[in-house]
Amino acid sequence: MAENSKRTFKIVSISILLLAMVWQHIQATRLGYAVENSRRQARILKSRIGSLQMELETSLSPAQLTLRAGSLGMVPAPPQSLRILGAS
Questions:
Q1: What per-residue confidence (pLDDT) applies to 84?
Q2: How many CA atoms lie within 13 A of 51 on its CB side?
Q3: Per-residue pLDDT tens for 72-88?
Q4: Distance CA 17, CA 12 (A)
Q5: pLDDT tens for each residue of 12-49
Q6: End-to-end CA separation in angstroms for the chain
Q7: Is position 30 within any domain?
Q8: What is the pTM of this model?
């Protein structure tokens, strides 16, 4: 009877150990997928930041500013309307 009890205890102990290892593996896999998803999102956001920076630089270029100013009716100031400050 005692031997059956020891055998049952060993089987239950091994089963619990195996279940714990399987659970740990499943959790590690889930975490791995979550990390990979976060990395993918980071790459997408970095790409978006790059395209937005390029768009900003393009919109602030002198050529673009000239086009926008012209569409608003702005024209370059004539030289006679300019004042040089701080000149003696």
A1: 84
A2: 5
A3: 999 888 988 888 888 65
A4: 9
A5: 999 999 999 999 999 999 999 999 999 999 999 999 99
A6: 114
A7: yes
A8: 0.58
CB 10 within 8 A of CB 2: no
Tokens of 20: 């714990």
Say if CB 64 and CB 58 are below 8 A apart: yes
The count of domains in the chain is 1
3-state SS string over 1-51?
CHHHHHHHHHHHHHHHHHHHHHHHHHHHHHHHHHHHHHHHHHHHHHHHHHH
State the Cα–Cα distance between residues 82 and 30, nearest whole angstrom: 68
Q: Which residue has the tokens 């990390």?
A: 35
Q: Which domain holds residue 39?
A: 26-66
d(CA 15, CA 82): 89
